[in-house]
Prior knowledge:
Layout lengths: L11 E5 L3 E5 L1 E7 L3 E6 L2 E16 L4 E13 L9 H6 L2
Antiparallel strand pairs: 1-2, 2-6, 3-4, 4-5, 5-6
Amino acid sequence: MPYDGTQSAAHRVVLESRKNLTVSGVEDVERFDDESIVLSTSMGAMVITGENLHIEKLSLDGGDLKVDGDIDSVSYEDDASPVKGGFFARLFR
């Protein structure tokens, strides 16, 4: 169920040694490759960047994601942006 601002699914981010990342509260994976993963969480859009990224586990029913690889950054999109349409709409405007 997409986040509508009225309920808060549990959201947790655990990064271990910049090699293993666990995220809960995942609602959807918008795109991924071996250098970036873009996903929707209960706390907003998240972008994970690095090298040799691999989705080890994805459970949208449980909202869990596990990633391994060389993780360089984990960041959130600013939901206050006046441009609608998500990450790629803002990137290619």
